[in-house]
Amino acid sequence: MKSAWVLMTAMPPTTGHAALIDFAANLVNVSDVNVVLGTQPDEPFVDERFEALNAYCMKYPNVFTFHYDQPIQQVPTGDDDADFWEMWRDILFGYGQCPGDYIVSSEMYGMKLAEVTDCEFMPFDLNRNINPIRGTDVREDPLMYFDYILPEFQRSLRKTVTIFGAESVGKTTLTNSLVWRINADAHADDYVQRAIGLPEWARPYLEAVGPEITEEKMRSIWFGQAAMQASVQRSADTPFIIQDTDLYSTYGYWNLWSPYTIPHGLFFAAENSKSDLYIIPQSNIPFEADPLRYGGDKRETSDDYWIGICEKFDLNYVVLRSDNRNKRVNEANEIILGLFDLGCLKYDRIKETV
C-alpha cells in the first residue's frame, strides 16, 4: 500500500477538485490520500478555501488535508528550474511523502513533480473530458460558473437578501418577482439557476394553528424561521437567496407584541444569520387587509420603524422609493446583482520568490 498526494491551489475549489480527490480516494492500493493546499498570504479566501476542502475531504476516513501558506515561488520559471521542484520535494517530504507514492494530478506538472520526488504519476482527466471546467473560467466569471464551484465553498460567495418592511407593502410579491427575474435573465444566457426564494415560515404556521399570538407561538416562529434559513443555506446551490423575511423581522413583530419578553437568544440568532442586504419597499401602495396582520384593517408599523431596526443593528439596507411594482423589481434586481463581486476571485500568481 502507498500514499497518494494531491496538490492544488483551489482558486476557487471546484467540482473538478472534488473529482480529483474522489479519484485518488478510490485507488485500490492506496492507504491514505493527502491533499496539500498551497496558498499565498495576499490571496483572497485563503481560510475559506482550506475549510471548504477540509469539509469535503471529511467524507473519506483516509483523506487528510494540509495547508501550506508560506510565501514561496509560486510557479516554475522554466523546465530547468531545479530549485522550484526541489523546494516542493522538500515540502512534501516534510508532510511524510515517501519514494514510490503516487502524485495524482489533472495537470502535466504532476509528471515532473513525480520525477523529482521519485514517485509515480497518476493522471486524472488531463483532457477535461469528465469535468470541463477550469479554475480560470470560474475566476473570470464566478456568477456564470457558480454551479461548478464546490458547494462547501459556494457559501463563502453566496449573497442573501431579505425583503424587509411594513405590512402589505408587497414583500412576498417582490420576493417571487425577483427570483423569477434573476433566473429568467440567467436562462437567457447560460441556463443556470441563480436565485432561490425563501418564503415566510410564520404564515403557514399561523394559518395552521390559528392567528392568536402567544409567547409559545412566537418562540415557535423564531425556531422555525431559524431552522428554515439554516437548512436552505446548507442545501442551496445558487449565488443568491432571496428571503421574504428573516429573524430581524421576527424581532420586529415580537417587539410590537411584547417588547419586554424578547429572549436574548433571538438577538444572537438574528445576528448569526443576518442577510447581506435588506431591501425595504416603501408603504406607498394600497393596504390589503389580512387576518394574520396585527393591525387588522390598517398598517401597524411604518417604514421608519423598520429602517430604525436596520440602523439599530447596523444592517446593510436600501429603501425602494417607487410605488410601481415593476419599477421596484427593476431597481431591486440591479441592486442585488451589484452585490456579487465578479472580481472577488481574481488573483495574478507571480513567478518571483516573495
Write down the secondary-structure element order. EHEHEHEHEHHEHEHHEHHEHEH
- Number of separate helices: 13
Q: Strands across the major sheet, in which order? A: 3-2-1-4-5
The overall pLDDT average reads 89
Shape: elongated
Strand residue percentage:
5-15%
CATH classification class of the largest domain: Alpha Beta
CATH architecture of the largest domain: 3-Layer(aba) Sandwich
Main beta sheet strand tally, sense and closure: 5 strands, parallel
Radius of gyration: 25 Å
What does this molecule look like?
The protein is α/β, with parallel strands linked by helices and 354 residues long. The protein folds into 2 domains: 2-140, 3-Layer(aba) Sandwich (Rossmann fold), CATH 3.40.50.620; 158-339, Rossmann fold (3-Layer(aba) Sandwich), CATH 3.40.50. It is 43% helix and 15% strand. It has 13 helices and 10 strands. It has helices at 15-25, 46-57, 82-95, 109-116, 135-140, 151-157, 171-189, 202-209, 215-235, 247-257, 264-272, 303-312, 325-339, and strands at 2-8, 30-38, 63-68, 102-105, 120-123, 159-163, 195-198, 240-243, 277-281, 317-320. The strands form 2 sheets. Strands 3-2-1-4-5 form a 5-stranded parallel beta sheet, with helices on both faces. A 5-stranded parallel beta sheet has the order 7-8-6-9-10, with helices on both faces. Strand 1, helix 1 (15-25) and strand 2 (30-38) form a beta-alpha-beta unit. The chain is elongated. It starts with a strand and ends in a 15-residue tail after the last helix. The relative contact order is 0.13. The mean pLDDT is 89.
